[in-house]
Structure formats: C-alpha cells, structure tokens
Amino acid sequence: MTTMAEKGEHRYILNMGPQHPSTHGVLRVILEMEGEYVMDPQPVLGYGHRMHEKMAESRPWPNFLPNAARMDYLSALIYNHGYVGVVERLAGIEATPRAEYIRVITSELNRLQSHLLWLGVLVLDLGAFTPIMYTFEDREKILDILEDVTGSRLTYCYMRVGGVVRDIDDKFVERTREYISWQRSRMPMYDKLVTGNIIFRKRIEKIGEFNPDMARRYGLTGPVLRGTGIPYDIRRAEPYSVYPEFDFEIPTETTGDCMAAYLVRVREIEQSLRILEQALDKLPAGPAMAKVPKKLKLPAGDACYAVESPRGELVYHLTGDGSDTPYRMKIRVPSFSNLSLLPELCRGMLLSDLCACMGSLDLVIPEIDR
Amino acid sequence: MKDYFALIFTGGKSLIVGMMITLRELFRPVVTVQYPREKLPLSPNYRGHTILIRDEEKPEKHRCISCKMCERECPSNCIDLAGEKREGVKGMVLIKYRLDFTKCSLCGTCVEVCPPNALDFSKVYQHVGFSREDFHYDLLAMVEEDK
Amino acid sequence: MSTVMNTGFLPLELLRIIFALICAIVIVFGNAVVMGYLERKLAGRFQRRPGPMEVGWHGILQLAVDGVKLVGKQLIIPKQTDRVLYRLAPIISFAPAIMPMVVIPFAPKLQGRDFDIGLIFILAVVAINVLAILIAGWSSNNKYSLLGAMRSVAQNVAYEIPMLLTLLSVILVTGTFSLRGIVEAQSGGAWFIFFMPVAFLIFFAATLAETNRAPFDLPEAESELTAGFMTEFSGMGFSLFFMAEYTYMFIACSLTVILFLGGWSGPPLPYGEYTSALWFFAKVYALLLTMIWIRWTFPRVRFDQLLNFCWKYLVPFSLVHLLVTAVVLKL
Amino acid sequence: MESKDSVIAAFKKIPVKVEEVDFAQRGYHLEIRLESSQLRAFAELLRTGNFYLSYVSGLHLTTGIDVSYQFANYGFPCRLLAHVSADADNSLPTIADIFQGANWHERETKDFYGVIFRNHPNLKPLLLAEDMEDLKPLLKKEQALKDRAAITRVEKIAEDKPAPAVKKEDA
C-alpha cells in the first residue's frame, strides 16, 4: 500500500469545491487520492477575494467600517472591534468605559453565535442533521438581541471610533440575562446528544492530530491551538478593551485532535457566558460615545491591534501618514494560517476525516480570501 | 475483552440517550413560523434602506436641506442627491434623492452625519426586482407619495 | 401467453400473479409517497420545524407535487457517461424492488404466491440493487459517484453475512424458508423477538446498512460525496432511485416483521384473513418510523468503522447466536 | 527565551537593531530592522523560542518594498514586528522552510507586491487568479508614494500629549 503510494501509482485527482457541501463556502481543495485515502490535499483560495486591504488604502478610514463586517461574517462585531481598536490606538483616542463594556458584551454574544453555528455545522459535516437546528434555535435568540441594538442580524456595523452607535438599554440587559440562563439549560442536552454520542466520538477522536510544534511552525491560533495544550488567548495574553476586568478561564485540552478542538469550543461557550454575566453586572453608567473630532486624521505612524476572534488571532496593522486615508492596512486573519496546515495535517487521511478536520478548523472562507 | 463489551454497553447507551432527546423534541411545539403567512415582529431598530423622514412640526415636509453630507460620507457612493435654489424659499430645495440600494451596506453613516436628522432607516426588508435599476430608490418620491 | 389467450381464459394462478403484481406496484408507489411524506414531516418535527405545510392540509399533497415535478424535469445525461448503462441503472434498481412484494404474506389470504424458498427469493432479488448502484456509479463517469458505488458494494457484501447468519437462526427453529411457514411458526404471540432479541437487533442493524440508511448512508454521504452514486441523476432517474430506496426499506422491514415480529399476527379482527394485514402494516411502519428516527438523530459512521462494526461485532455475535440456537434446539 | 529581555539579549547575537516600543500606543512590543541577509538567521533564532509567525506583509515606499514580519509568542506577551527592505532585484530569502506558515503569507505578498521569495517551494498566485500575476494590486502610484519618515510616528508629541491628531483638529 505504502510502496504503491510512494510510487504515486493508482492515484487520481478529486476536485472538492468550490461548491461542495462541506467546504463551507467557496473553498476549493484539490485532493490527490488513492482509493479513499487523501494523499495530498492542496487548498485553492481566492474565489471570494475582494482585496479589502486595497479598499482600506483607497478611501478615508471611516469608510472601511462596513468592510470590517464583511470578512468574517460570523464574527462581524469582533472584526468591528478590531478595526475601531486599531484606529483608536493609532489616533490616541479612548472610548468611554461604558462603550468598552458594550463592545465586550456584543463581541461575546457574537462569539457565542459563531460557536453555536460551528457546533451545528461540524455535526452536520459528520452527517447528523438535527443538532444544527437546535443550535440555530439558540443562535436565533442571540441574533434577535443583537438585531435590537445594532439593527442588523449578520453584517453588523455597530462600533465607531470612540464608542458604539447605539447605547444598550435595560431591555437588552434583561434579554441577555434570559439568554444566558437559557443557553446554560441547553448545554446538557448537547452533551448528551452530541458529545456523548459514540459515533460522533469515534469520528473525531484521534483525527487530525495537531501538536504544539506544528502550531508554532504554521502560526496556529484559536481553539484548535488551545486543543494542543497551549493556553494562548489574546484576551489573556495581550488583554485589550476591558477583558482584564473579567474572571474567566482559558479552556485547554492536551490531545490536540479534533475532539480536543471540539471540547475547547464547547467549554468556551460557558466562559463567554461567564464574561457576559460579569460584564452585565459591572456595566458602568455614562455615555456610550466619546467626543471624537468630526474630521479625524490618522497620524503618521503605525499600530497593531490584536483581538481574539472565534477562530483565533485577528490582527489589524494600520499605517497612517497624516491624512485621513490609511497608507497601509494589513489584516491578519486566523483561518488563513489555520488552513495552511491542511496539507500537512490531512496527508494519508480518509476523505471522511478530511471533512471532519475542516469542520473542526471552523473555516470561514470570505475571511481567508478577504 | 472487558473493553469490548464495555464499549458495546456504553456505546449502545449513548445511542439510546441521543434517541430519547430527539424523541422528546419531536413532541415539543415547533419554533419556526410559516414565513409569508405568519411574520415575526420586527425590531424597532431594524435597519432597512434609508428614507427621508417628515418634519414633526410640518408633517407635509421632509427635513432635507440638500447639504450633501450623506453623499460625501457614504462609503459605497450609493447616494445621488441634488438641490436647487428657488425664489422665495430659504436654503436649498431638494429636487433629487436617489439611493442605489444594490451598493448600500446599511452602515448608517448617512443617518449619523445628517445635520437636520432628515434620514432614518425604514422597516422594509422584502426587496424584489427584476433588474438592478429596480433597487435604485427615489427617496424623494417615496416621501412625497407617503403623504 | 398467446396460447393462453387463444383458449379463451387465463389460468387462475397466472391471473393471481398478475393481480398481485399490480397490487405490488400500488404498494410500491403508495409506500414511496407515504414514506416520503413521513420522512420529511418527521424530520421537520424532530428539528422543531413544521415540515411541509403548503400543498394540501399540512402539506399532505407535497409528494404528489414533487412527483409531478420530477417527472416533468429534463433528463440530463451528461457527456462522457456510458449512455446505455446510465439509463439502465435506475431501472435495474427499481424493477427488482417490486418482485419481493409478490411473496410477502401481508395476511393469511393476502399473498401473491407462497414459495417454499420465499426468503431466499427475496434476498436474491434484493441483492440486485447493489449491481444497480455499481452501474450507476460507474456509468456516471464521476469520481464521487464511483466512490459512492464502491462504498455501497463493500458495505452490502459485508452486511449480507451477519444478516444471513441471523436468518439461519430463525430457519433452524422454523425448518422452512417459506415466509408463510415462518409467520405461522410464531402464531399465538410466540414472536421470535422474545426468544432471540439479539438476533433481532443484529438483523435490524444489518438491514439499516443494506438499505443504505443513516447512520450507514455512506454511498450517498452528502457532506463527503455530495450525493454519492446519485450525483449525476436528475428527474425520473433520481426519483426511481428514491422510490427504490424506500421500497427496499419497506421490504427489509417486512422481512424483520415476518421473521421476528410475528408477521400479521395480532389481536383478532373481523374478516381476519384479510384485515390482519393491518397488523402487518402497523408493525412495518413502526419499524420504518424507527429508521427515520435513527436517521435524524445520529451522525454517519466512517467507512472503516462501518466494516469494523460488521466484522468485529455483528458477525461474531451472530455466529455465537447461531451456535447457541443450534445447541438449544438439539437439547 | 523566557521573557522579553532575554529575547532582546538573544538578538544581540545576530546582531539586529531592536527597539522597545510602547505597547499601549503601538500594539506590539519590539520593532526590529533587519538586513535581508539577516532574515533567515533571525527566523531560525525565533524558531528556537516559543514564537509563531503571525503574518508577512508588505509596504510600498519610495525606497522600494519593505516587507514586515510579525511574530508573537505563545508563552509571554512579546509581539515583534521586523522590517526588511527587499533587495535591489525585489527579492528576499524565503523563511517558508523555517516557519511553514510563511508559505502562504509569502505567496500572498508576492501576489500583492511582486516580491520574489528566493527558494520558495511554490510561488504561484494564491489569492489572485493564475493569470493576474502582473497585477500587483497593492503597489502605489508614484505620486502617492511616501518615504519612511512620513509614516513614522513623531514620538515627542505623543509623550506629553496623548492625542496629537485630536489636538490638531480642535485648534
């Protein structure tokens, strides 16, 4: 078997995507197969490429705000947060304390929403149709809460330099608290239906084994990294916004397989709920928008702002030249690096395991393509 | 050998537990609605396409002063408006306000920058058309029609 | 045939077979419609959705409309397919599905023809489906189709073994291959499921795999192989596969009912020789609903796990079971 | 390398120009200027620590293309940004064999700026289409080009007045 594989005989090319149910969008993977074994998967990117970095360079910085939501459509608020964060850092503006809390609350809701969708989609990739409908029921509650404050359901454009567009009210706080207890009551159900299921466990245990060295070589971040035992989370490692004020854990697992990534994400749901609870308790009064000059120019110089997106480390690197248009903006997206290890990770794997691996990487293709 | 039977037992149990959960959900009420027949209440803060709102004091008029702030600030360049000077009227009179909704990303910049707060979001979420031009909304006509 | 016509009358036995075949076709189509509706409705309810609601009362006519749509669709035959085999595959899959209906005893007097080897006849005819799937996969000239077809062949061949071994346990007790004989051996509530529940479970698991149902739906595995062997089929080609799938499910569940759940036996009904078919159908649909329930609960197993499950669990268990049955009978 | 200081000490071996910057203002801890000949040694040094490659990106200046490498550390907060000017023939040595993650980042930089990474295993277009190799979308027009001084922060103002740009506007 191996000798035949080494010779490269009996191999054939299987084209997976850009329209394939488990590539989650317009990712294309060219698989060199041997029977059902994937010998060499090569991702092909760029089907959803929009050159966001060029767009940022070609117009005044406030005009990039809507773009920030359109890279990773599942964590638009976290991308919002990163972008206003980098502009604030470069221009030396501080958002009001209440605004920072609102940003954290909405970001965590957004993270929960992304994790819930991922949970459903991973199980869908493995062939179970029902859990995604249950996670969507939960996710819908978050979307309703966020819609009420941001006005949109998916591509939010909510945060502004200095604060947020609309202050949250008591109704929002109350609904979020209701949601927290609802989500807590749902988790045992997922434990029984998904985590405990023998077929599910056998499908993702010992599949796609990541290790810390691989993580270093490829720049792996996010829950997949924490599954290898490295407790690296930007919210803790380089705290931004008001995250230092909250007490939460960084869940880690040591096995580094898809199951570990799964468990980390499921436990992160609980941690996000904890952050939400504390943020709602501590929410300070005051304005939700700081006084910001109407025509803000970006000073010369550069600044980075790293945030923890549901998929890993998101970095905005903004270079200003004294005008209102950025001279250069680099966006480092987590899935880009996370996907780049696919060829090494999935060599010699079964086709079904490749689907499980891609599901547990939690890919969002427009984010990779930018 | 012990593991062999233990796996059968735990595995079988987990399958039955899973089936009990879906069985329980089977008898619970549905959570979705039949969309065109039933509609969920829309959030009052929902962002549909922008509209010109009418003055509270003078309900027959919109508040737009044709200052073109929204046109300048729009990230997607989807607003096209024009005003003209008319005799006997103070300020500019709006003669055209076209919104290219195919480009609009509903960021809300125009609503925020508008000095007289003449713009607001509508609650329209059903947009149907056969060509791109069907989504070029004439906000001025809309506000006049609405009287 | 013509000589028969010339004599002016049909032999009674031939008439009976023709009538049975017509009934079989009615059952096949009726079952596909009922199952299609039930599957979608129940899938909806398992997922807290209402399911089909638009056509008729609670969407009850949905399948009729879908059928019309599928018939009206263009038959797309992609270039570079093997045209003859590509057209033949759905027919080869569907045609054998009708034949077993003739020998299934729905009620004491509702049976097309009782063969002495009825059980073997059903198994032999149903096995043709694998060939159809292989042909479909091969002739489509699509790698996903071929992968699905290959999976299907391996899976079906592997699961025939535990299935036949458990059948043998039953045959040892009844001493006949005649389906009517097997049902009559269980009269008076002495259903075999009470004596050999393990055999029932093995048989049911094997039928799930044989009919390519979740969690063993690897040949179509939509998240991996898009639609497996059916990828390239549209319109009637697709709907024949679709109907064949439901018919094979029906046959598999009928066999389970005949072998383990006492066939038509149940509380007595008026005109029981005919109406006890009601009990038969009730039991069959209970099993079919369980299949639907399983499908909408579990993820799909992986291919090696599927075969492992067969060779490591089902085959040893059914062998031991056969041995135990034989020993008990001898004592 | 257990702390930021030990990292700085380790860099003395190469030797590279290291500047410690204010994290609150810049979002990274160390700014490094490298010669292209030092790049591989620099990457190999980081490979021995607990560092990972965050991204590779470019910057088009009057002097040519400036490629920046950002690394961060899994163990302790130490994010560093290294600038390297591309050689005269617009090329740089690859680090894709040291940090495999650089493979795609370098391909992306090649797409956007046309920087050739020497000995890169597979320098085909990644995000752009195969026939767009000459597009190089992030190269700026000549009149828009700036030199490094124009995009360097004037630290003196920043020290006593935290928001220089705001002040300027208010006045």
Can you walk me through this structure?
The complex is a heterotetramer of chains A (370), B (147), C (331) and D (171). Chain A has helices spanning 2-7, 52-58, 65-68, 76-91, 97-125, 130-150, 170-195, 198-204, 212-218, 223-226, 234-237, 258-282, 334-340, 342-345, 351-361, 365-369, and strands at residues 12-16, 28-34, 37-44, 159-160, 163-164, 301-309, 312-320, 328-332, 349-350. Chain A is of the alpha+beta class. In chain A, strand 2 and strand 3 (37-44) form a beta hairpin. In chain A, helix 5 packs antiparallel against helix 15 (351-361), helix 6 (130-150) packs antiparallel against helix 7 (170-195) and helix 12 packs parallel to helix 15. The model of chain A has no long low-confidence stretch (mean pLDDT 87). Chain B folds into 2 domains: 1-31; 50-145, 2-Layer Sandwich (Alpha-Beta Plaits). The termini of chain B are far apart. In chain B, the strands form 2 sheets. In chain B, strands 2-3-5 form a 3-stranded antiparallel β-sheet. Chain B has a two-stranded antiparallel sheet with strand order 1-4. In chain D, the strands form 2 sheets. A 5-stranded mixed β-sheet of chain D has the order 1-2-5-4-3, with helices on one face. In chain D, strands 6-7 form a two-stranded parallel sheet. The radius of gyration of chain D is 17 Å and the shape is globular. The relative contact order of chain D is 0.14. Classes of the chains: A alpha+beta (370), B alpha+beta (147), C mainly alpha (331), D alpha/beta (171). At the A-D interface, helix 2, helix 4, helix 9, strand 6 and strand 7 of A face helix 2, strand 3, strand 4, helix 4 and helix 6 of D. Chain D: Residues 33-143 form the NADH:ubiquinone oxidoreductase 30kDa subunit domain. Chain D: GO terms for molecular function: NADH dehydrogenase (ubiquinone) activity; oxidoreductase activity, acting on NAD(P)H; quinone binding. Chain D: Its EC number is 7.1.1.-.
Briefly, what is this?
The complex is a heterotetramer of chains A (370), B (147), C (331) and D (171). With 370 residues, chain A is of the alpha+beta class.
